[in-house]
Structures are given as structure tokens and as C-alpha cells.
Amino acid sequence: QQQVKQSPQSLIVQKGGISIINCAYENTAFDYFPWYQQFPGKGPALLIAIRPDVSEKKEGRFTISFNKSAKQFSLHIMDSQPGDSATYFCAASIGGYQKVTFGIGTKLQVIP
Amino acid sequence: NAGVTQTPKFQVLKTGQSMTLQCAQDMNHNSMYWYRQDPGMGLRLIYYSASEGTTDKGEVPNGYNVSRLNKREFSLRLESAAPSQTSVYFCASSVTASGNTIYFGEGSWLTVV
């Protein structure tokens, strides 16, 4: 049972465009929602995270939008750059609990 | 400033062979994890250690064993490798087990033939 559903699995965006990756979760006990970025041949690294008491969090060109009632959250990458080409994972966890559940990942390619 | 270091980087095994993936972190983290990454499956937790002296099963523990040797080191052992264990394995650590940032190693590419 996939507790965090991520889409799309792959995404091609032109340089300067907006990249949008969506995730949906089922367990309403989740209270921490991070996004990880992974470059080829490297391990994932935390990009940005949000807790459900806020609807949006922005860090530079990266924004998380969170809809608690719909149990959905998304990553927006504004002014996408070729250097943003990577695989992005959404994730969810329960505070005080060890296991982070990851989505299946989205491979983003930003073309010049 | 190494972070999470795992060895080996690449390994080819024959079916039935055993091997141990080694992992060490230098960030004084309490919690450590082993994940596997497969196409279309994302990252799946194999085993974790919330603190030194404890280990627990994750989502896909079958065919694996772990040892938390000390606070720094957490190893993953395949006793009798199977082709289904061909994957990229990531060791990771976090300060505690409660929703903190997880820091990943660079991965170990394992092929079982």
C-alpha cells in the first residue's frame, strides 16, 4: 500500500518555466512533509520541508504548497534551470516516529 | 566533513554469496537507516536503528540483517544474495528519529547475478 502517491514520474520543463510535482497522502497522522533532491550518482538531500500548520513555505525558487483538507502537497520550482535537473522525492513522517515514507520520485529534466 | 560514508561503492555478487555493506557517520547522530532504491519504487526502508543498541525492521527487511556496531557505524548484511536484491543501497542518519533531516550517503550499487 503506497502511503504517499507522487506524480508525475517524469517531467520535462523548458528553462525559465515552472516545474510542479504533486503528492497525496492517506495517513492523517503524518505531520512532517519534506522534499528531497537527488542528483545522478548521489544520495538524496533535503531540499525543503513543511509542517501542516502552514499552507505554504518558500525558499528561494522552491515553494511547497500544502492542502490539509485534500491531503495533498506539491513542490513548485519557479524559473526552472538546467541545474535543477534531478530526481525529486516527496516524503511524509509522523513526529516522534522513526519511519519516513517516500514517494516513488519524479525525474525532472530542464531543457535549455 | 565526510557526513555519511558507505562502502563499497560498487559490488557484483553471485547468487547465494554473502556480503556486508558498511556505513559510518561522523555527525554524532543517534539514528541510522538503510534504504534501497529501485526504479518506480522510490526509497524503501530496510532496517533502522533509532539509537545505539536498538534495531528495528522497516518496510522490506526480508533477506537482510543489520548490526549497530556503535554510535557511528551501522552495517547491512546479505546472508545469501538473490537477484531480487539487485539495487542501490543508501545508508542514512539523523539527529534523532523524530522527523529531523535525514542525511544520506552516496549509495552502494549492488548487482546479484
**N-to-C series of helices and strands of chain A:** EEEEEEEEEEE
Q: How many strand units of chain B?
A: 11
Strand content of chain A: over 45%
In whole angstroms, the N-to-C terminal distance of chain B is 36 Å
The succession of helices and strands of chain B, N to C, reads EEEEEEEEEEE
Radius of gyration of chain B: 13 Å
Mean pLDDT of chain B: 93
Q: Could you give the topology of this structure?
A:
The complex is a heterodimer of chains A (112) and B (113).
Chain A (H helix, E strand, L loop, with lengths): L3 E4 L2 E5 L4 E7 L7 E6 L6 E6 L5 E4 L2 E6 L4 E6 L8 E8 L6 E3 L3 E6 L1
Parallel strand pairs in A: 2-11
Antiparallel strand pairs in A: 1-3, 3-8, 4-5, 4-9, 6-7, 7-8, 9-10, 9-11
Chain B lengths: L3 E4 L2 E4 L5 E7 L5 E8 L3 E8 L6 E2 L6 E5 L5 E5 L8 E8 L8 E2 L3 E5 L1
Parallel strand pairs in B: 2-11
Antiparallel strand pairs in B: 1-3, 3-8, 4-5, 4-9, 5-6, 7-8, 9-10, 9-11
Key structural traits:
heterodimer, A: 6-stranded mixed beta sheet, 5-stranded antiparallel beta sheet, 54% strand, B: 113 residues, mainly beta, 7-stranded mixed beta sheet, 4-stranded antiparallel beta sheet
Can you give a write-up of this model?
The complex is a heterodimer of chains A (112) and B (113). Chain A has 112 residues and is mainly beta. Helices cover 0% and strands 54% of the residues of chain A. In chain A, strands 2, 4, 5, 9, 10 and 11 form a 6-stranded mixed beta sheet that branches. In chain A, strands 1-3-8-7-6 form a 5-stranded antiparallel beta sheet, with no helix packed on it. Chain A is globular and about 40 Å long. The relative contact order of chain A is 0.34. With 113 residues, chain B is mostly beta strands. In chain B, the strands form 2 sheets. In chain B, strands 2, 4, 5, 6, 9, 10 and 11 form a 7-stranded mixed beta sheet that branches. A 4-stranded antiparallel beta sheet of chain B has the order 1-3-8-7, with no helix packed on it. In chain B, a hairpin with a 3-residue loop joins strand 4 and strand 5 (42-49). Chain B is globular. Classes of the chains: A mainly beta (112), B mainly beta (113).
